[in-house]
Amino acid sequence: NKGLEINSLTVEYQEGHLALEQMDLCLPEHSIYTMIGPSGCGKSTLLRAIAGLVQSYTGEIKFNDQSLRKQGTALIGLVPQNYGLLPWKTVHSNIRMAMRISDSGRHTKGQQEQQITSWLTAMGIADLAQRYPLSLSGGQQQRVAIARAFAILPEIMLLDEPFSALDAITREEIQTIFLENWISHPTTTLFVTHDVEEAILLGEKIVVMPSNKEEPPVIIDNPVFQI
Ligand code: ADP
Ligand code: ADP
Protein backbone atom coordinates (compact mmCIF):
# COMPACT_ATOMS: atom_id res chain seq x y z
CA ASN A 1 0.00 0.00 0.00
CA LYS A 2 1.36 3.38 -1.01
CA GLY A 3 0.91 5.96 1.71
CA LEU A 4 0.56 6.09 5.45
CA GLU A 5 -1.09 3.17 7.17
CA ILE A 6 -2.03 2.99 10.84
CA ASN A 7 -3.04 -0.48 12.01
CA SER A 8 -4.58 -1.15 15.38
CA LEU A 9 -2.55 1.58 17.07
CA THR A 10 -2.84 1.58 20.84
CA VAL A 11 -0.96 4.03 23.06
CA GLU A 12 -1.01 3.73 26.82
CA TYR A 13 0.96 6.45 28.61
CA GLN A 14 -0.08 5.28 32.05
CA GLU A 15 -1.34 1.89 32.98
CA GLY A 16 -5.06 1.62 32.47
CA HIS A 17 -5.28 4.92 30.61
CA LEU A 18 -5.38 4.56 26.82
CA ALA A 19 -4.64 7.65 24.74
CA LEU A 20 -5.51 5.71 21.57
CA GLU A 21 -7.22 2.35 21.31
CA GLN A 22 -6.80 0.10 18.28
CA MET A 23 -6.98 2.92 15.84
CA ASP A 24 -6.93 2.28 12.09
CA LEU A 25 -6.38 4.93 9.44
CA CYS A 26 -5.01 5.06 5.89
CA LEU A 27 -3.82 8.10 3.99
CA PRO A 28 -2.95 7.47 0.34
CA GLU A 29 0.31 8.94 -0.84
CA HIS A 30 0.07 12.64 -1.79
CA SER A 31 -3.24 13.14 -0.03
CA ILE A 32 -4.12 15.76 2.57
CA TYR A 33 -6.49 14.78 5.37
CA THR A 34 -7.64 17.05 8.14
CA MET A 35 -8.56 15.66 11.56
CA ILE A 36 -10.97 17.05 14.10
CA GLY A 37 -12.20 15.65 17.38
CA PRO A 38 -12.70 16.49 21.02
CA SER A 39 -9.83 17.43 23.27
CA GLY A 40 -8.15 14.36 24.72
CA CYS A 41 -9.24 11.97 21.95
CA GLY A 42 -5.63 11.32 20.98
CA LYS A 43 -4.91 13.56 17.98
CA SER A 44 -1.55 14.82 19.23
CA THR A 45 -0.64 11.36 20.39
CA LEU A 46 -1.29 10.02 16.92
CA LEU A 47 0.93 12.66 15.28
CA ARG A 48 3.66 12.08 17.84
CA ALA A 49 3.53 8.34 17.32
CA ILE A 50 3.82 8.77 13.54
CA ALA A 51 6.71 11.21 14.03
CA GLY A 52 8.54 8.67 16.21
CA LEU A 53 8.18 10.72 19.39
CA VAL A 54 6.10 8.03 21.11
CA GLN A 55 7.90 4.73 20.96
CA SER A 56 5.82 2.64 23.33
CA TYR A 57 2.83 1.70 21.26
CA THR A 58 1.30 -1.49 20.02
CA GLY A 59 0.09 -1.93 16.46
CA GLU A 60 1.78 -0.79 13.27
CA ILE A 61 2.56 2.51 11.61
CA LYS A 62 3.77 2.06 8.06
CA PHE A 63 4.69 4.27 5.15
CA ASN A 64 4.80 2.62 1.73
CA ASP A 65 4.75 -0.74 3.52
CA GLN A 66 7.79 0.08 5.67
CA SER A 67 7.38 0.17 9.42
CA LEU A 68 8.10 3.59 10.91
CA ARG A 69 9.32 2.02 14.13
CA LYS A 70 12.80 2.22 12.76
CA GLN A 71 13.89 5.85 12.91
CA GLY A 72 14.72 7.45 9.61
CA THR A 73 12.47 5.19 7.54
CA ALA A 74 10.54 8.16 6.23
CA LEU A 75 11.37 11.83 6.32
CA ILE A 76 8.74 13.64 8.36
CA GLY A 77 8.01 17.36 8.58
CA LEU A 78 6.27 18.30 11.81
CA VAL A 79 4.62 21.67 12.41
CA PRO A 80 3.62 22.08 16.06
CA GLN A 81 1.23 24.70 17.37
CA ASN A 82 4.00 26.64 19.10
CA TYR A 83 6.15 26.83 15.92
CA GLY A 84 9.09 24.88 17.37
CA LEU A 85 11.75 27.28 16.11
CA LEU A 86 15.14 27.59 17.77
CA PRO A 87 15.18 31.11 19.27
CA TRP A 88 18.96 31.51 19.18
CA LYS A 89 19.14 30.91 15.43
CA THR A 90 18.04 33.19 12.64
CA VAL A 91 15.15 32.25 10.37
CA HIS A 92 17.66 31.27 7.71
CA SER A 93 19.68 29.13 10.13
CA ASN A 94 16.58 27.41 11.50
CA ILE A 95 15.73 26.22 8.01
CA ARG A 96 19.27 25.48 7.00
CA MET A 97 19.83 23.34 10.07
CA ALA A 98 16.72 21.26 9.39
CA MET A 99 17.84 20.78 5.80
CA ARG A 100 21.32 19.82 6.83
CA ILE A 101 20.03 17.20 9.25
CA SER A 102 17.55 15.72 6.80
CA ASP A 103 19.44 16.03 3.54
CA SER A 104 22.56 14.03 4.43
CA GLY A 105 24.64 15.29 1.55
CA ARG A 106 22.23 14.99 -1.36
CA HIS A 107 22.37 18.69 -2.13
CA THR A 108 25.28 21.09 -2.23
CA LYS A 109 25.35 24.06 0.08
CA GLY A 110 24.57 26.32 -2.89
CA GLN A 111 21.50 24.30 -3.81
CA GLN A 112 20.34 24.39 -0.22
CA GLU A 113 20.74 28.17 -0.09
CA GLN A 114 18.63 28.48 -3.23
CA GLN A 115 15.98 26.25 -1.71
CA ILE A 116 15.87 28.30 1.49
CA THR A 117 15.43 31.51 -0.45
CA SER A 118 12.77 30.00 -2.62
CA TRP A 119 10.74 28.63 0.32
CA LEU A 120 11.00 31.89 2.25
CA THR A 121 9.79 33.69 -0.87
CA ALA A 122 6.95 31.20 -1.33
CA MET A 123 5.83 31.86 2.24
CA GLY A 124 6.12 35.63 1.73
CA ILE A 125 8.93 36.15 4.27
CA ALA A 126 12.08 36.50 2.15
CA ASP A 127 12.88 39.75 3.96
CA LEU A 128 12.94 38.03 7.36
CA ALA A 129 15.84 35.64 6.68
CA GLN A 130 18.25 37.26 9.13
CA ARG A 131 15.74 37.93 11.89
CA TYR A 132 15.48 35.91 15.08
CA PRO A 133 12.21 34.07 15.77
CA LEU A 134 11.33 35.96 18.94
CA SER A 135 11.45 39.27 17.05
CA LEU A 136 8.68 38.02 14.74
CA SER A 137 4.91 37.95 15.10
CA GLY A 138 3.17 34.62 15.65
CA GLY A 139 2.01 34.55 12.04
CA GLN A 140 5.52 35.21 10.78
CA GLN A 141 6.96 32.49 13.02
CA GLN A 142 4.38 30.04 11.77
CA ARG A 143 5.31 30.89 8.17
CA VAL A 144 8.92 30.08 9.04
CA ALA A 145 7.88 26.77 10.61
CA ILE A 146 5.92 25.86 7.48
CA ALA A 147 8.74 26.92 5.18
CA ARG A 148 11.04 24.70 7.21
CA ALA A 149 8.67 21.74 7.02
CA PHE A 150 8.37 22.05 3.23
CA ALA A 151 12.07 22.77 2.74
CA ILE A 152 13.19 19.37 3.93
CA LEU A 153 11.00 17.82 1.19
CA PRO A 154 9.36 15.40 3.63
CA GLU A 155 7.50 12.25 2.64
CA ILE A 156 4.95 12.89 5.39
CA MET A 157 3.86 16.23 6.78
CA LEU A 158 2.15 16.44 10.18
CA LEU A 159 0.57 19.63 11.49
CA ASP A 160 -0.83 19.97 15.00
CA GLU A 161 -3.26 22.90 15.16
CA PRO A 162 -0.65 25.14 13.60
CA PHE A 163 -2.88 28.16 13.06
CA SER A 164 -5.07 28.11 16.14
CA ALA A 165 -3.12 30.80 18.01
CA LEU A 166 -3.34 33.26 15.11
CA ASP A 167 -5.90 36.04 14.61
CA ALA A 168 -8.56 35.43 11.97
CA ILE A 169 -7.05 37.51 9.17
CA THR A 170 -3.54 36.16 9.62
CA ARG A 171 -4.98 32.66 9.80
CA GLU A 172 -6.78 33.05 6.49
CA GLU A 173 -3.66 34.38 4.77
CA ILE A 174 -1.52 31.54 6.03
CA GLN A 175 -4.14 28.91 5.23
CA THR A 176 -4.19 30.12 1.64
CA ILE A 177 -0.44 30.25 1.28
CA PHE A 178 -0.07 26.84 2.94
CA LEU A 179 -2.58 25.31 0.55
CA GLU A 180 -0.90 26.85 -2.52
CA ASN A 181 2.42 25.42 -1.44
CA TRP A 182 0.91 22.06 -0.64
CA ILE A 183 -0.67 21.89 -4.09
CA SER A 184 2.69 22.43 -5.74
CA HIS A 185 4.33 19.93 -3.32
CA PRO A 186 1.59 17.44 -2.41
CA THR A 187 3.31 15.49 0.28
CA THR A 188 1.21 13.00 2.31
CA THR A 189 -0.28 15.26 4.99
CA LEU A 190 -2.28 14.88 8.19
CA PHE A 191 -3.50 18.22 9.53
CA VAL A 192 -5.05 18.33 13.02
CA THR A 193 -7.31 21.27 13.78
CA HIS A 194 -10.15 22.14 16.13
CA ASP A 195 -11.61 24.51 13.55
CA VAL A 196 -14.27 22.88 11.38
CA GLU A 197 -13.99 25.58 8.70
CA GLU A 198 -10.27 24.95 8.47
CA ALA A 199 -10.89 21.21 8.23
CA ILE A 200 -13.21 21.81 5.28
CA LEU A 201 -10.88 24.28 3.60
CA LEU A 202 -7.74 22.15 3.80
CA GLY A 203 -8.77 18.49 3.79
CA GLU A 204 -9.68 16.35 0.82
CA LYS A 205 -11.05 14.05 3.50
CA ILE A 206 -11.96 14.93 7.06
CA VAL A 207 -11.24 12.43 9.80
CA VAL A 208 -13.63 12.87 12.70
CA MET A 209 -12.28 11.30 15.87
CA PRO A 210 -14.83 9.88 18.29
CA SER A 211 -14.93 10.85 21.95
CA ASN A 212 -15.35 7.20 22.78
CA LYS A 213 -11.98 5.66 21.92
CA GLU A 214 -13.52 2.27 21.26
CA GLU A 215 -15.27 3.65 18.20
CA PRO A 216 -13.45 4.05 14.89
CA PRO A 217 -12.87 7.49 13.37
CA VAL A 218 -15.40 8.56 10.75
CA ILE A 219 -13.91 9.62 7.43
CA ILE A 220 -15.86 12.13 5.38
CA ASP A 221 -15.32 12.90 1.71
CA ASN A 222 -15.02 16.64 1.30
CA PRO A 223 -16.72 17.90 -1.86
CA VAL A 224 -15.70 21.48 -1.02
CA PHE A 225 -11.99 20.71 -1.34
CA GLN A 226 -10.82 21.26 -4.88
CA ILE A 227 -7.32 21.54 -6.24
P1 ADP B 1 -5.75 15.54 21.77
O1 ADP B 1 -4.56 15.98 20.99
O2 ADP B 1 -6.80 14.93 20.91
O3 ADP B 1 -6.30 16.60 22.66
P2 ADP B 1 -3.85 13.94 23.25
O4 ADP B 1 -3.22 13.03 22.27
O5 ADP B 1 -3.09 15.14 23.66
O6 ADP B 1 -5.30 14.35 22.72
O7 ADP B 1 -4.22 13.14 24.57
C1 ADP B 1 -4.87 11.89 24.56
C2 ADP B 1 -4.95 11.36 26.00
O8 ADP B 1 -3.65 11.01 26.46
C3 ADP B 1 -5.50 12.35 26.99
O9 ADP B 1 -6.27 11.64 27.92
C4 ADP B 1 -4.26 12.93 27.65
O10 ADP B 1 -4.54 13.34 28.96
C5 ADP B 1 -3.31 11.75 27.61
N1 ADP B 1 -1.90 12.16 27.48
C6 ADP B 1 -1.37 12.91 26.49
N2 ADP B 1 -0.04 13.07 26.63
C7 ADP B 1 0.27 12.40 27.77
C8 ADP B 1 1.50 12.18 28.48
N3 ADP B 1 2.66 12.66 28.03
N4 ADP B 1 1.44 11.44 29.63
C9 ADP B 1 0.29 10.94 30.07
N5 ADP B 1 -0.89 11.11 29.46
C10 ADP B 1 -0.90 11.82 28.32
P1 ADP C 1 25.94 26.44 12.75
O1 ADP C 1 24.62 25.83 13.00
O2 ADP C 1 26.76 25.67 11.78
O3 ADP C 1 26.66 26.82 13.98
P2 ADP C 1 24.39 28.62 11.74
O4 ADP C 1 23.30 27.68 11.44
O5 ADP C 1 24.23 29.66 12.79
O6 ADP C 1 25.73 27.83 11.98
O7 ADP C 1 24.68 29.38 10.38
C1 ADP C 1 25.90 29.98 10.06
C2 ADP C 1 26.15 29.70 8.60
O8 ADP C 1 25.02 30.09 7.84
C3 ADP C 1 27.32 30.44 8.04
O9 ADP C 1 28.13 29.49 7.39
C4 ADP C 1 26.74 31.41 7.03
O10 ADP C 1 27.56 31.42 5.87
C5 ADP C 1 25.42 30.81 6.69
N1 ADP C 1 24.40 31.83 6.43
C6 ADP C 1 23.67 32.50 7.34
N2 ADP C 1 22.82 33.33 6.76
C7 ADP C 1 23.00 33.20 5.42
C8 ADP C 1 22.40 33.78 4.24
N3 ADP C 1 21.41 34.69 4.33
N4 ADP C 1 22.81 33.37 3.06
C9 ADP C 1 23.78 32.47 2.96
N5 ADP C 1 24.39 31.89 4.01
C10 ADP C 1 24.02 32.24 5.23
From TrEMBL:
Q: Which residues form a coiled coil?
A: none
- Identify the keywords attached in UniProt to this record, alphabetized: ATP-binding, Nucleotide-binding, Transport
Q: List residues traversing the bilayer.
A: none
Fetch the Gene3D superfamilies from UniProt. P-loop containing nucleotide triphosphate hydrolases
Q: Which PANTHER family match?
A: BICARBONATE TRANSPORT ATP-BINDING PROTEIN CMPC, SPERMIDINE/PUTRESCINE IMPORT ATP-BINDING PROTEIN POTA
What Pfam families does the record tag this protein with?
ABC_tran
Write out the GO MF terms.
Answer: ATP binding; ATP hydrolysis activity
Tell me the InterPro entries matching this sequence.
Answer: AAA+_ATPase (IPR003593), ABC_SmlMolc_Importer (IPR050093), ABC_transporter-like_ATP-bd (IPR003439), ABC_transporter-like_CS (IPR017871), P-loop_NTPase (IPR027417)
| Limits of the ABC transporter domain | 4-227
**Name of the protein in question:** ATP-binding cassette domain-containing protein
